[in-house]
């Protein structure tokens, strides 16, 4: 029986929760897009305008599906980071950080498009952006605090 105790990683647990939330939102928006229906939105929001824009798909695929895939990768990498050891943990955390950085940057770009070109916001998209930004911040903080960048 292994008596070694595993360290609790609150950042990892938070990242898993944020990933689950983002995946849920992404699946909902993907289904809405593929079913050609309108998302349930809160009064006065611009879900329809955002969904109808040319930015809601990339190469014919709903952008939300890319978010689901990215967040699934983040969740798997976080899980392996929490369960792994040594270099594998470092690689897993770098995967989380790089995927979150890319996803957050693209989400912020799309939010800027919503603000300045479409002039409408989708609350679901803002939740997804918030999840990615929080995952980025948590993973970056974890990397800095625990010196994962050192060889």
Inertia-based shape? elongated
- Rg for CA atoms: 17 Å
Structural class: mainly alpha
Report mean pLDDT, rounded to a whole number.
Answer: 88
Query: In whole angstroms, how far apart are the ends?
Result: 31 Å
CATH class: Mainly Alpha
CATH architecture: Up-down Bundle
Q: Do you know the CATH topology?
A: de novo design (two linked rop proteins)
Summarize the structure.
This protein has helices at 10-35, 47-52, 63-83, 86-118, 123-145; strands at 57-58, 61-62. The chain is mostly helical and 151 residues long.
Structure notes:
By secondary structure, this protein is an all-alpha fold. It has one domain (10-36, 46-145): de novo design (two linked rop proteins). It is 72% helix and 3% strand. It has helices spanning 10-35, 47-52, 63-83, 86-118, 123-145; strands spanning 57-58, 61-62. Strands 1-2 form a two-stranded antiparallel ribbon. A hairpin with a 2-residue loop joins strand 1 (57-58) and strand 2 (61-62). Helix 1 runs antiparallel to helix 3, helix 1 packs antiparallel against helix 5 and helix 3 (63-83) runs antiparallel to helix 4.
């Amino acid at each position: 029986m292994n008596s070694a105790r595993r360290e609790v990683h609150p950042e990892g647990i938070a990242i898993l929760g944020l990933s689950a939330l983002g995946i849920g939102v992404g699946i909902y928006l993907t289904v809405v897009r593929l079913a050609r229906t309108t998302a349930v939105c809160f009064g006065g929001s611009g879900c329809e305008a955002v969904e109808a824009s040319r930015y809601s798909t990339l190469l014919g695929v709903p952008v939300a599906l890319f978010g689901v895939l990215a967040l699934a990768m983040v969740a798997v990498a976080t899980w392996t980071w929490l369960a792994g050891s040594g270099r594998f943990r470092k690689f897993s955390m770098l995967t989380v950080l790089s995927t979150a950085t890319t996803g957050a940057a693209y989400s912020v770009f799309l939010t800027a498009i919503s603000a300045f070109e479409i002039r409408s916001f989708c609350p679901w998209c803002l939740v997804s952006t918030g999840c990615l930004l929080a995952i980025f911040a948590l993973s970056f903080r974890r990397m800095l605090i625990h010196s994962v960048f050192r060889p």
